[in-house]
Every structure is written in structure tokens, then in C-alpha cells.
Amino acid sequence: MTDREPFWKRKTLHAMSPAEWESLCDGCARCCLLKAEDEDSGEIVYTEVACKLLDLDTCRCTDYKRRARHVHDCVKLTPEKVTSLGWLPSTCAYRLLAEGRELYWWHPLISGSRSTVHAAGISVRGRVLPENDVGDPLSHIADWPR
Predict the structure, then answer these.
(1) What is the spatial distance between Cα 143 and Cα 146, in angstroms, rounded to a whole number?
(2) Residue/partner pairs of 113-121 with CB below 8 Å, 24 or more apart
(3) pTM assigned to the model
(4) pLDDT per position as a tens digit, 41-51
(5) Which residue in 2, 12, 69, 109 has the fewest CB atoms around it within 10 Å?
(6) What is the largest CA-CA distance in the chain?
(7) Which residues, listed in sequence order, are joined to residue 54 by a DSSP beta bridge?
(8) Is-contact 59 118, C-beta < 8 A?
(9) Contact between residue 124 and residue 57 where contact means Cβ atoms under 8 Å apart
């Protein structure tokens, strides 16, 4: 490998700077969907309900730095957690790199644009309901996020 290789091909997840780590997020916001775990089977189900902090147009958190103050179960991704969180979508850059796979063409680091994740139909844009508008999220189970 050479210095001409992009950082995500040269570095491990552990070796990345905070800015590099954050740039891996493709902006799909699938991790911002409310999820539930079946107590008997352990299966994770996604809902079509987005976290109350998610901007449904940009698919970005409206208070990212202080999100844990507002959403007590918001998970901060770390290299250690990436390999143990079974609910991360198969398209997630953190998961892909941890598994030794390549980023998809629509990832902003590859395409050079934050809009390709939306154009490719990967993001939650136009597919979800805001948490504050939904009574029971479990009445809105989705299978497409996986």
C-alpha cells in the first residue's frame, strides 16, 4: 500500500483519526431507525420510524454532539462495537471495512457527493416517519433496512 491509497484502505478502524472515522458515515441513517429485539429469538427488527433527532431530509442528526443527552440509548460507534452490533446494515461502511470489504460506489468517499447515497436508494430519505408522530413504533415494522 502506498500513501496514494485512501486512508480507509491504508488504516485499520482503530488507527483512524476522529475526522476520518466520522467521514466513514455514508449518511444513510439506517442506524437511526428505531429497532426492537425479540426477547425469545434475539432477532432485531427495524421499524420505519426515525429517531426524534433525525433530519428526515438530510438524514443527519440535528444534535449529533449532544445526542446522548436527548436519546439515552443512542449508540456511539467504536471499532470494538462495529463487529458486535448485529443490527448495523450490511451496507454500513464501518461494517464493510471491519469485514475487509470495499465501500460501495455511492459512498460519499468514493462518489465525492453526499447525494449519491440518496440517489442509490440506500438512505431512509422519503421512507420513514418521525418518532414524534408515531404512537407505537412496532406497528411500523420494516424489512428493507437490512
Answers:
(1) 7
(2) 114/27, 117/26, 117/27, 117/28, 117/59, 118/27, 118/59
(3) 0.90
(4) 988 999 999 99
(5) 2
(6) 53
(7) 61
(8) yes
(9) no
CB 77 within 8 A of CB 89: no
Q: Assign 86 to helix, strand or coil.
A: coil
Place of cell 433530519: 55
- Closest residue by Cα to residue 124 from 59, 73, 80: 59
Distant-in-sequence, close-in-space partners of 70: CB < 8 Å, separation ≥ 6 = 52, 53, 63
CA separation for the pair 16, 10 (Å, rounded) = 9
CA gyration radius, the chain? 16
pLDDT digits (tens, 9 = 90+) for 31-40: 999 999 888 9
